[in-house]
Amino acid sequence: MSSARTLKQSWRHGIVCGGCWTLDRIKMIDRWPQQESLAVIKETDRQGGGSAHNLGIDIRKLDPSIPVEAIGMVGKDADGDFLQSTAVDHGVNVEQLHRTDKAETSYTDVMADETTGKRTFFHHQGCNNLLTPDHFDFSASQCKLLHLGLLGVHQQLDDAWGADANGWVSVLKKAKAAGLQTNVELVSIDPERIRELCLPCLPWLDTLIVNDYEIGALANIETMHAIEPAHETSGSQDNGSAPAQSKAAVPAQCVAAARQVLQLGAMSLVVVHYPAGAVCVCRDGQVTETLSVQVDSASIVNTVGAGDAFAAGMLYGLHESWSVDASLQLAHAVAAASLRSRTTVGSVESVERCLALADR
User: Fold this and answer.
1) Residues of 57-74 as b/e, b for ≥16 C-beta within 10 angstroms?
2) H or E segment to which residue 348 belongs
């Protein structure tokens, strides 16, 4: 990094959380039904969701001294009111959380089968489809980082924008020009679609934090191997979107994929997380491998939002200029803390309390 760029960023403080703001409508069902049969909804809840919402709230809960700015789109409806008020209650700056009456707030129906613990997601993109690069203004921001997502569930940002391959590239270019460091979050969709959307973004990224499925998709490398269902472990780093399958990460393959993706972009590091741990590959060749926090299965209420919690811990550490190893340890600790709640952000606590929980 040049001295001029370092000087430009030295006074910056805070994180911009841009992109996906959505409402999670959580339904606990007694079983997963066959078509044209009945399941009983035992409990319901509604909570904020989406990458921007989850990471933004997590950061504020980890450390209320870190400024967080929201950029996104919600409807002029009750769900939009709920998301905006939740953000405000946590001290998030919502000046650029745009409101519209042209479409309803994005929402996801989360069906959680109480007999298996597995979740199925029905997503309505809503007004997230109306979000464009023009809604992103970094000119007055004093934040240090931009966390942007979710690639694949925003119609106009997913499409070409001017001369750019997609609107995500346009947003990242604006952020870089304004002096922010950048990170994107993916969703575990079709591998070809992941490559189509994300590969053009890599030259404009400072960091990339993804799961084992996503790094394999980007590098077109198999990063997981089949396992017997009886040996499957609970996914403490699950981001709620990976395909349901009995597979486990192969750390060496994750490292190989991360190295390949690193060479395709400008990132200083690539982090890959998976249920058993995580690896970080730095541009200088350093490879750091860590294990997840061992959590008693009886303490795991839900894994929704654990991937966002991991990213929040990692980005907090990088924001505070912690070492890679210390940042990864915090990332695992925050992910473990998040498992205690049915909601995406409900059980995340302060940095100190998350680390203490992990130690216990």
Assistant:
1) bbbbbbeeebbbbbbbbb
2) none
Tens of pLDDT, residue by residue over 299-354, are 766 666 788 999 999 999 999 999 999 999 999 999 999 887 766 676 799 999 99
Cis amide leading into 150 (omega within 30): yes
* Close Cβ partners of 326 (under 8 Å, ≥ 6 residues apart): 317
Domains, in order of start, for the chain: 13-359 (3.40.1190.20)
Laid out side by side, the sheet with 269-274 consists of 93-100, 68-75, 15-19, 145-151, 181-186, 207-211, 269-274, 277-282, 287-291
Report the helix count and the strand count for the chain, using DSSP H and E: 11, 15
Global pTM exceeds 0.85: yes
Q: Indicate the pLDDT class of residue 1, thresholds 50, 70 and 90.
A: very low
Q: What is the pLDDT of residues 2-35, one digit of tens each?
A: 444 444 456 899 999 999 999 999 898 999 999 9
User: What is the DSSP track for 31-55?
Assistant: SPPPTT----EEEEEEEEESHHHHH
